[in-house]
């Protein structure tokens, strides 16, 4: 059975169904959307369970000719990396649907206009299909198609359901990403032409481009697109606007999944297709990443708007991911992949809880809050836990990934005379800054005497508990036992790095043996 | 004699040692998830869990006792944490079990005490869940068999401390103090983390066993680096200079918290870290060890000086805690002999400082949460039990002969003397100051005449609070002697941290010993004249600049503020501005630029057909010219 | 000097589609002359549509039964080769759906000669019925397009150019509303058109002077043998180019396009924007590839400059437009630039057929989407006719989400977003261009399409993200024709955006044999 | 000797082109266009002579026919706009711009 095609088809069908519902049937639309997304989740679980980590690299392979004259296939398959990211999407979407139950209703303290509910939810489902597709695509052209098409539903979600600045944010988001995408398109075309294999299938293109100069140019074509998507400093300024203006649910998918396409692309395409170029540019990328980590964190501290703040923290986190990818050690890369997933969960719950607060108070400004902990302890508690995973507290999932990225980068052997330990050390200061921006925000929102504006604030209701609980459970669970994920990720990462001709997954050589070798 | 081999272990109580961590964790989980339903019996559950954990610790201890010395380092596998990097496991050895006993033992007492102390607080359940959480994290810290596990516990206790300091979130001061504690600790953790990275890259492992085995073979520079990085972490947790500033603010938390976390256990984690890694990274005479001792001495003096000027009883005790931990650090820098006294002092301090803090709590309980000693006075009649126990604690800490503090502290001082007289004498001086500020505290509180607020009706605390006090004070009396005399502790710890070549015999009459006693006596007498006999003003007088210096915590906060906070704020503002105007400015600028160009260019489209014709003609000319050019090249 | 002239052979079979269209046009004239006013439309519509459909059928027949002819017909005057057949097909399809728009009532003035607001006009309106001459005129224009794109010698090409243009000049002036604009558009188009055709003609003369023939094949062989080092030749080539660039609206010869597109009746704009462009590109390809193929090293650099200028001007000027039709005009300029990339990307036979099929596919996708877009424009009306000004489109998504949605979809297709036909169109042109060594152009192309995306997106923002104005435009209930056009266009845009393969195959076959000489 | 004719035709063409640019009256502009066409005719005839084949001559006839058709259409348009605007100046018609 074509599992992956089904995974893509189900939400599309669901989206159409939701869109075709009669005008008044808002509640029904929500329920249908939720059910569909749960079905997708179930299917994804089935796929995940049947996936054998140590087996073939790509599994559930589906390849049909799509546009023979362009050498384009409907090529789907997953390896460990893609699988976990698909799982991430499949988990987040139902949660988001549940969380944005009233986002389009026009209820909410800042009384926004009533908007079309079914459109919103069908857009969500379309987006889910695209997200799954983009990770499952093994045909580079197909990947590009999803990569670009994905923008449209998100564009409409931001543009017609977002905050006051929404259209500015939406346009900025679309054009910025589109620009990167078009540069990538040129690279894609050139890759096809230069490789001369008359196919876009990724596995057949690995290691085909050998000329270093060509590699560099093509690398840049891909990389810039991904750097904008991720986003990496200094291509990041669209994210705070987009994330701050998007409705919380959309923001979760935007930062939690869409942006991962960028880092995923770096790991999958930039590294494997252009290994030499990747190594050549590593120092540059690491510098950008580290700057992003510190810079993002510092700017985050200075934010007055919760969602913008979270967005900037994400910029900092994406710096970690990019660093992990390009440090090219098994630990760092595996850590980066794990980071993509964990960041999805932690930022997701952070955005959602912030969304709950904003829904109640009608303002995203931190200054408008205070003493929430007193009136709505559960809400504040969820907010705190989310924040703590944001500052990657040990025992929460994000710690493991951040630790692996840092330790991996730290232990990567010096290349081109630059010892990456330095980068790791600078990046580690992000740990301190994270504590500042998260705790300070929490203090201003939840601590101190209760501001009368939040006096009557309701605590989490049943639905919202169901939104928060699974994510927090995952965060804590993976925090103490990340092995299941890592077992899926590690082989895939090893293969990737092997294609980049970097050594396999192994610990650094203990000094004892070094000494032994010395004698 | 070197530490002994670590042996894989399974079965027995040690085999299930993880219960020590799991039980309180479970307790915390139940209390947090259970919500209001558990309000009625929540605190009891907390106590039970803590006691259960204590029981396991005792049994494990007994099982360990049953083994010969070279068998006493048992390691148990738990699970693969990060495949290929970290296998989570526990190391049950004399050192860790000693800590486990202290944590669970004193911890349980404080749990019990809190039942009474927090009886009126609506958030009591939450309080106990946090306490349980702390115990679990602290146990993970000391029991883990690898540095990552330790790091997790390390930050775990940081979290618990954050939650408990900020337990009364609605008090801005509390919220701020909690945040400060966490952030300052993070600075320490930064060092610890990098230390762990370096360990991993150097030794290809983070587990104690393998690391210590090959540690000797790494280059000296690397070892020193690791040592200093770990020390930075230790300074954060144990409020050693230069990361001491958070501890005094931490007193915003409920008093039992100050007793448990910020006196008896958590703040000693730094000492644990140093002692644990001692053989590998802080060998006697190494640079790292030297720095440890210097930090220790500096802090013990600083803490003591701060203690002299505080009118807030808890802050006074906090200062003294800093100072006492300074002693432990000093000891921890002095090799096996030092370890023995450091750990010894750590244990006895755990008792008498907890005793003192709980006593202070009991006083506050009586004086409806008044902490200003200038508003106390003459309380000994009304709070007999509290007074007696507090007084025992007092004698213990000033090192009154034959009480706990006497043995362990003098031990440290003498060992220090051995290594370097300077450090030694400074330590002696510290002891003298201790004598002063502790006496000052006792006199201001229990002697002299009443200076209470009119609405104060002091009364002795209920048994649930006094009984723990009594138990602790008993410990404060005898524990030191028991541990030191006859090398009980030394022999016990030897397998874990290595023991001195020849057994230590404790000399009762030594120059430094005498000197210490004299200085302490002088200090006490001085305190008597100033605060016992003389009238104590209710409002603190403008003291000399020395006093202000002490009152302002040696300007620690001022320094942080001017060196870190303000520049930090500026940097933040700058960065935000740069991001909006600079980076984003460029982006929007390009867009605006294109728009502007468009706006100007469209003016060319004048609407006059003849101008269009002109453009065509012009274009034709250009095209023709270009072609001619190209063609005739 | 014996008077024996052998009779010319004319392959009527191959030319039948074109002849059918012209025939229908003539019939139309007769109808105008003979049929009573109230009947005319009733007769015109079936005649016109049937002739177009029939012509299309004939093309299919030709392609299926006889296959693609090997050499030019009508004494080498007209080349009915693969590309020609494909382009004819495209033109006929576009013309057919444009016709459905033209059918729509009250687009055309009752009596062109009557002064607006004068009594004559009123009773002309009273007598009912628009100018039915539009049908024969349009048919003549369409016939001209067919001829233009398949002319195999410059003289025929010139005649075709005029046959195509003259009716369009008139049609531009026939808008029922905003007469002044319409007439102005007509005058401008006419004067400039005539002016440019003058250039074309002079260029033709000079080329003839060099080659001694106006037959495309002849010119090419002359170039091959002599190897052009003749200034007059270069000037001639330049002037020929000017004429053609004018028709496709390449910068700096684009000035007429916005004005004319804005002023002309929207259905006619649709016809011009789709049909004329396609035909003109057919001619451009023939002239530059067939006749001047041996001169490509000389004209390529110039063409580079023109292409770049066209793309940039089109994209940048469109940003600040406030009239929807004007904006679409600039967008069509930009697209002409993209297509020029394909024209430049020549090389060996394989390369050429690659580029050619890309261009053919692009022409089809762009044409259909364009007609659809203009069809939507005709439906958004307010008091004074079509609501041209963009500000009037604010909040359309709230008033009639379906229409706005479709229009947004067309715009995304223009922007070249994947899963729309526009994306594959661009790809089909860009991909061969890269292998053809025009990477630089492609980069410029993608950058300017990123810029272009901005103004397409801007319209979407207006329609969906801004609140509707109180007295916003009403969406006219579409006539069957208009509805059909929108539906067809939307469907085509989707289908070609998801399963382009069949049409791509067609284009490949058409392009495989390249042009016959 | 054909060069002179070519120069002449070029001159005529140039005059025509310039005329289009400088004259306002639509009719005159249109006449200038016609002049350009006739310049072309001259060129064709000359080249026909040069090459000694009849194509050029023949083309000239075609051009005349086309020109005639153009006149018909052109005058119609110009007259219409004259009737509405009461002016034949091409410059008056510039509502469509920018």
TrEMBL record, chain A:
Q: Which domain of life is it from?
A: Bacteria
Q: Which GO terms describe its biological process?
A: ATP synthesis coupled electron transport; electron transport coupled proton transport
InterPro entries (UniProt xref): NADH_Q_OxRdtase_chainM/4, NADH_UbQ_OxRdtase, ND/Mrp_TM
Q: Where is the NADH:quinone oxidoreductase/Mrp antiporter transmembrane domain?
A: 137-424
GO CC annotation, single: endomembrane system
Q: How does it sit in the membrane?
A: Multi-pass membrane protein
Q: Which residues cross the membrane?
A: 6-25, 32-52, 72-99, 120-137, 143-161, 173-195, 215-235, 242-261, 281-302, 309-330, 336-358, 378-400, 420-440, 466-482
Query: What is the predominant subcellular site recorded for this chain?
Result: membrane
In the record, the note on similarity to other proteins reads:
Belongs to the complex I subunit 4 family.
* Name of the protein in its database record: NADH-quinone oxidoreductase subunit M
UniProt organism field: Thermocatellispora tengchongensis
UniProtKB/TrEMBL annotation, chain B:
Every copy of the NADH:quinone oxidoreductase/Mrp antiporter transmembrane domain together lies at 144-434
Keyword line: Membrane, Transmembrane, Transmembrane helix
> Which positions, given as ranges, span the membrane?
12-34, 41-62, 95-115, 127-144, 190-208, 220-236, 257-275, 281-306, 327-348, 383-403, 423-443, 463-486, 506-528, 612-631
Membrane topology type, per the record? Multi-pass membrane protein
Q: Which Gene3D superfamilies match?
A: 1.20.5.2700
**Gene Ontology MF: a single term:** NADH dehydrogenase activity
**Do the record's keywords include RNA-binding?**
no
Q: Which NCBIfam families match?
A: NDH_I_L, PRK06590.1
Q: What is this protein called?
A: NADH-quinone oxidoreductase subunit L
From TrEMBL, chain C:
Reactions it catalyzes: a quinone + NADH + 5 H(+)(in) = a quinol + NAD(+) + 4 H(+)(out)
A GO term from the CC aspect: endomembrane system
Q: Does the keyword Protease apply?
A: no
> In which domain of life is the source organism classified?
Bacteria
In the record, biological process GO terms are: ATP synthesis coupled electron transport
What are the entry keywords? Answer: Cell membrane, Membrane, NAD, Quinone, Translocase, Transmembrane, Transmembrane helix, Transport
- Tell me which residues make up the NADH:quinone oxidoreductase/Mrp antiporter transmembrane domain: 151-450
Q: Where are the bilayer-spanning segments? A: 12-31, 43-64, 84-102, 134-150, 156-175, 187-211, 231-256, 268-289, 301-320, 327-347, 359-380, 401-419, 439-465, 477-499
- What is the recorded membrane topology of this protein? Multi-pass membrane protein
Q: Name the Enzyme Commission number(s) assigned to this protein.
A: 7.1.1.-
Compartments (UniProt record): Cell membrane; Endomembrane system; Membrane
Q: Entry's InterPro entries? A: NADH-Q_OxRdtase_suN/2, ND/Mrp_TM
- GO terms assigned for molecular function: NADH dehydrogenase (quinone) (non-electrogenic) activity; NADH dehydrogenase (ubiquinone) activity; quinone binding
Q: Major location, coarse class? A: membrane
Annotated HAMAP family: NDH1_NuoN_1
Protein family: Belongs to the complex I subunit 2 family.
- Quaternary structure note: NDH-1 is composed of 14 different subunits. Subunits NuoA, H, J, K, L, M, N constitute the membrane sector of the complex.
Quote the function comment for this protein: NDH-1 shuttles electrons from NADH, via FMN and iron-sulfur (Fe-S) centers, to quinones in the respiratory chain. The immediate electron acceptor for the enzyme in this species is believed to be a menaquinone. Couples the redox reaction to proton translocation (for every two electrons transferred, four hydrogen ions are translocated across the cytoplasmic membrane), and thus conserves the redox energy in a proton gradient.
Q: What NCBIfam families is this protein classified in? A: NDH_I_N (TIGR01770), PRK05777.1-4 (NF004441)
Q: Which gene encodes it?
A: nuoN
From TrEMBL, chain D:
Q: Which gene encodes it?
A: nuoK
Protein name as it appears in the record: NADH-quinone oxidoreductase subunit K
- Where would you find this protein in the cell? Cell membrane; Membrane
Q: Which NCBIfam families match?
A: PRK05715.1-2, PRK05715.1-3, PRK05715.1-5
* Keywords assigned: Cell membrane, Membrane, NAD, Quinone, Translocase, Transmembrane, Transmembrane helix, Transport
Family matches, as Pfam families: Oxidored_q2
* Reaction equation(s) it catalyzes: a quinone + NADH + 5 H(+)(in) = a quinol + NAD(+) + 4 H(+)(out)
Q: Read off the lineage from the record.
A: Bacteria, Bacillati, Actinomycetota, Actinomycetes, Streptosporangiales
Q: Name one GO molecular function term.
A: NADH dehydrogenase (quinone) (non-electrogenic) activity
Membrane-spanning ranges: 6-22, 27-47, 59-82
């Amino acid at each position: 059975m074509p599992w992956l095609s089904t995974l893509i088809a189900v939400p599309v069908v669901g989206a159409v169904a939701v869109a075709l519902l009669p005008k008044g049937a808002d509640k029904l639309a929500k329920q249908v959307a939720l059910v569909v997304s749960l079905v997708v989740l179930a299917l994804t679980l089935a796929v995940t369970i049947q996936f054998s980590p140590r087996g073939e690299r790509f599994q559930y392979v589906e390849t049909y000719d799509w546009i023979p004259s362009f050498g384009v296939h409907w090529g789907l398959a997953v390896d460990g990396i893609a699988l976990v990211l698909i799982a991430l999407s499949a988990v987040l979407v139902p949660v988001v649907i549940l969380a944005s139950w009233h986002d389009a209703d026009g209820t909410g303290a800042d009384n926004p206009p009533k908007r079309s509910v079914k459109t919103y939810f069908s857009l969500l489902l379309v987006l889910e299909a695209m997200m799954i597709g983009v990770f499952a695509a093994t045909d580079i052209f197909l990947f590009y198609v999803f990569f670009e098409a994905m923008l449209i539903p998100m564009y409409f979600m931001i543009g017609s359901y977002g905050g006051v600045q929404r259209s500015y944010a939406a346009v900025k988001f679309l054009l910025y990403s589109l620009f990167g995408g078009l540069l990538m398109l040129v690279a894609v075309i050139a890759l096809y032409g230069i490789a001369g294999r008359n196919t876009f299938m990724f596995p057949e293109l690995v290691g085909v481009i050998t000329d270093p100069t060509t590699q560099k140019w093509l690398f840049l074509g891909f990389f810039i697109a991904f750097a904008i998507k991720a986003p990496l400093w200094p291509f990041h300024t669209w994210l705070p606007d987009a994330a701050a203006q998007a409705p919380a649910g959309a923001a979760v998918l935007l930062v939690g999944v869409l942006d991962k396409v960028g880092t995923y692309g770096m790991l999958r395409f930039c590294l494997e297709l252009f290994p030499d170029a990747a190594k050549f540019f590593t120092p540059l990328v690491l510098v950008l990443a580290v700057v992003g980590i510190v810079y993002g964190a510092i700017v985050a501290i200075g934010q007055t708007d919760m969602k913008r703040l979270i967005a900037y923290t994400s910029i900092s986190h994406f710096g970690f991911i990019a660093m992990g990818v390009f440090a090219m050690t098994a630990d760092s890369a595996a850590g980066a992949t794990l980071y993509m997933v964990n960041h999805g969960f932690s930022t997701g719950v952070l955005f959602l809880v912030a969304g709950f607060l904003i829904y109640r108070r009608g303002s995203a400004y931190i200054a408008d809050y205070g003493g929430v902990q007193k009136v709505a302890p559960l809400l504040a508690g969820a907010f705190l836990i989310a924040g703590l995973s944001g500052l990657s507290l040990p025992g929460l999932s994000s710690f493991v990934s951040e630790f692996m990225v840092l330790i991996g980068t730290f232990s990567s052997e010096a290349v081109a005379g630059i010892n990456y330990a330095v980068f790791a050390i600078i990046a580690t200061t992000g740990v301190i800054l994270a504590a500042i921006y998260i705790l300070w925000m929490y203090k201003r929102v939840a601590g101190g005497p209760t501001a009368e504006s939040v006096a009557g604030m309701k605590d989490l209701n049943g639905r919202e508990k169901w939104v928060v609980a699974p994510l927090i459970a995952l965060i804590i669970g993976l925090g103490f036992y990340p092995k299941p994920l890592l077992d899926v990720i590690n082989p895939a990462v090893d293969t990737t790095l092997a294609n980049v001709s970097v050594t396999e997954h192994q610990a650094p050589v203990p000094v004892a043996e070094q000494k032994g070798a010395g004698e | 004699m070197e530490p002994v081999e670590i042996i894989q272990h399974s079965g027995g109580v040690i085999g299930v040692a993880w219960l020590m961590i799991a039980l309180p964790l479970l307790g915390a989980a139940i209390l947090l998830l259970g919500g209001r339903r558990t309000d009625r019996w929540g605190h009891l559950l907390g106590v039970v869990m803590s006691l259960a954990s204590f029981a396991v610790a005792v049994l494990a201890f007994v099982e360990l006792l049953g083994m010969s010395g070279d068998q006493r380092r048992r390691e148990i596998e738990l699970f693969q944490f990060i495949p290929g990097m970290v296998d989570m496991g526990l190391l049950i050895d004399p050192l860790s079990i000693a800590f486990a006993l202290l944590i669970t033992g004193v911890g349980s007492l404080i749990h019990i005490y809190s039942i009474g102390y927090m009886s009126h607080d609506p958030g009591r359940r939450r309080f106990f869940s946090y306490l349980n959480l702390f115990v679990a994290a602290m146990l993970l810290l000391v029991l883990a068999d690898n540095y990552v596990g330790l790091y997790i516990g390390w930050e775990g206790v940081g979290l618990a401390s954050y939650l408990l300091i900020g337990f009364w979130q609605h008090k801005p001061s509390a919220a701020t103090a909690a945040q400060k504690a966490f952030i300052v600790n993070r600075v320490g953790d930064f060092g610890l983390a990098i230390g762990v990275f370096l360990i991993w890259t150097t030794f290809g492992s983070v587990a104690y066993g393998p690391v210590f085995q090959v540690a000797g073979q790494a280059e000296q520079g690397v070892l020193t680096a690791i040592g200093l990085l770990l020390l930075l972490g230790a300074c954060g947790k144990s409020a050693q200079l230069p990361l001491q500033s958070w501890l005094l603010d931490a007193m915003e938390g409920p008093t039992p918290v100050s007793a448990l976390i910020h006196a008896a256990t958590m703040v000693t984690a730094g000492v644990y870290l140093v002692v644990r890694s001692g053989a590998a990274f802080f060998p006697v005479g190494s640079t790292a060890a030297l720095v440890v001792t210097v930090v220790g001495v500096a802090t013990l003096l600083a803490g003591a000086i701060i203690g002299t000027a505080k009118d807030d009883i808890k802050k006074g005790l906090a200062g003294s805690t800093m100072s006492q931990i300074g002693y432990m650090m000093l000891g921890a820098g002095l090799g096996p002999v030092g370890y023995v006294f450091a750990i010894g002092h750590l244990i006895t301090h755990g008792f008498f400082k907890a005793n003192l803090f709980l006593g202070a709590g009991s006083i506050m309980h009586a004086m409806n949460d008044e902490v200003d000693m200038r508003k106390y006075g003459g309380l000994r009649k009304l709070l007999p039990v509290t007074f007696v126990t507090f007084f025992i604690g007092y004698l213990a800490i000033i090192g009154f002969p034959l009480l706990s503090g006497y043995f362990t502290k003098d031990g440290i001082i003498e060992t220090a003397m051995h290594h370097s007289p300077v450090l030694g004498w400074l330590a002696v001086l510290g002891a003298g100051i201790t004598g002063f500020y502790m006496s000052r505290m006792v006199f201001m509180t229990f002697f002299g005449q009443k200076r209470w607020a009119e609405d104060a009706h002091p009364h002795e605390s209920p048994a649930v609070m006094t009984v723990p006090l009594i138990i602790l004070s008993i410990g404060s009396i005898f524990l030191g002697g028991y541990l030191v005399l006859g090398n009980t502790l030394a022999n016990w710890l030897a397998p874990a941290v290595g023991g001195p070549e020849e057994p230590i015999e404790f000399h009762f009459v030594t120059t430094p010993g005498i000197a210490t006693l004299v200085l302490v006596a002088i200090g006490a007498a001085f305190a008597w004249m100033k605060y016992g006999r003389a009238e104590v003003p209710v409002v603190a007088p403008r003291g000399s600049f020395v006093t202000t210096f002490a009152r302002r915590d040696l300007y620690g906060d001022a320094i942080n503020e001017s060196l870190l906070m303000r520049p930090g704020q500026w940097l933040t503002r700058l960065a935000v501005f740069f991001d909006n105007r600079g980076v984003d400015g460029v982006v929007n600028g390009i867009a605006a630029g294109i728009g502007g160009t468009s706006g100007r260019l469209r003016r060319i489209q004048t609407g006059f057909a003849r101008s269009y014709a002109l453009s065509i003609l012009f274009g034709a000319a250009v095209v023709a010219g270009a072609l001619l050019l190209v063609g005739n090249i | 000097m014996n008077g024996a002239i052998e009779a010319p052979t004319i392959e009527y079979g191959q030319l039948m589609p074109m002849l059918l269209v012209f025939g229908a046009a003539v019939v139309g004239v007769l109808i105008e002359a003979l049929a009573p006013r109230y009947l005319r439309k009733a007769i015109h519509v079936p005649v016109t549509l049937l002739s177009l459909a029939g012509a299309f059928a004939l093309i299919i027949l030709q392609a299926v039964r006889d296959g693609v002819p090997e050499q030019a017909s009508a004494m080498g005057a007209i080349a009915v080769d693969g590309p020609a057949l494909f382009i004819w097909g495209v033109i006929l399809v576009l013309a057919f759906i444009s016709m459905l728009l033209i059918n729509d009532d009250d687009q055309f003035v009752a009596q062109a000669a009557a002064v607006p607001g004068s009594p004559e006009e009123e009773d002309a309106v009273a007598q009912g019925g628009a100018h039915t001459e539009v049908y024969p005129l349009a048919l003549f224009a369409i016939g001209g397009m067919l001829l233009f794109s398949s002319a195999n010698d410059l003289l025929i090409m010139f005649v075709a150019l005029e046959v195509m243009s003259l009716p369009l000049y008139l049609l531009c002036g026939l808008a029922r509303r905003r007469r002044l604009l319409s007439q102005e558009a007509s005058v401008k188009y006419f004067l400039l058109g005539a002016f440019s055709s003058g250039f074309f003609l002079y260029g033709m003369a000079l080329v003839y002077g060099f080659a001694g023939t106006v037959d495309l094949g002849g010119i090419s062989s002359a170039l091959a043998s002599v190897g052009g080092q003749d200034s007059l030749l270069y000037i001639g080539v330049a002037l020929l180019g000017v004429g053609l660039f004018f028709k496709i609206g390449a910068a700096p010869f684009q000035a007429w396009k916005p004005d004319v597109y804005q002023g002309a009746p929207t259905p006619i704009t649709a016809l011009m924007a789709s049909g004329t462009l396609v035909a003109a590109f057919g001619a451009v390809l023939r002239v530059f590839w067939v006749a001047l193929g041996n001169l490509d090293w000389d004209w390529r650099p110039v063409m580079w400059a023109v292409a770049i200028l066209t793309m940039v001007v089109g994209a940048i000027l469109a940003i600040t437009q406030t009239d929807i039709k004007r904006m679409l005009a600039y967008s069509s300029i930009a697209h002409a630039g993209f297509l020029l990339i394909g024209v430049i990307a020549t090389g060996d036979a394989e390369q050429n057929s690659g580029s050619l099929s890309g261009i053919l596919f692009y022409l089809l996708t762009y044409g259909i989407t364009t007609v659809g877009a203009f069809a939507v424009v005709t439906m958004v009306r307010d008091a004074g006719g079509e609501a041209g000004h963009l500000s009037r489109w604010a909040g359309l998504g709230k008033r009639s989400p379906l229409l706005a949605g479709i229009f947004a979809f067309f715009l995304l297709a223009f922007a070249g977003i994947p899963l729309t036909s526009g994306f594959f169109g661009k790809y089909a042109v860009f991909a061969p261009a890269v292998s053809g060594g025009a990477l630089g152009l492609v980069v410029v192309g993608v950058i300017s399409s990123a810029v272009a995306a901005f103004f397409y997106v801007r319209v979407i923002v207006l329609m969906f993200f801004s609140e509707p104005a109180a007295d916003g435009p009403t969406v006219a209930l579409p006539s069957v024709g208009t509805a059909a056009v929108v539906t067809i266009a939307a469907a085509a845009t989707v289908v070609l955006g998801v399963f382009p393969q069949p049409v791509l195959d067609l284009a490949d076959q058409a392009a495989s044999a390249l042009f016959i000489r | 000797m054909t060069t002179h004719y070519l120069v002449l035709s070029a001159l005529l063409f140039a005059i025509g082109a310039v005329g289009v640019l400088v004259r306002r009256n639509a009719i005159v502009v249109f006449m200038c266009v016609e002049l350009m066409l006739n310049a072309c005719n001259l060129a064709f005839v000359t080249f026909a002579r040069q090459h000694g084949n009849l194509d050029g001559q023949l083309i000239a006839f075609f051009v005349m026919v086309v020109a005639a058709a153009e006149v018909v259409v052109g005058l119609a348009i110009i007259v219409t706009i004259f009737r509405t605007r009461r002016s034949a100046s091409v410059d008056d018609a510039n509502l469509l711009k920018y």
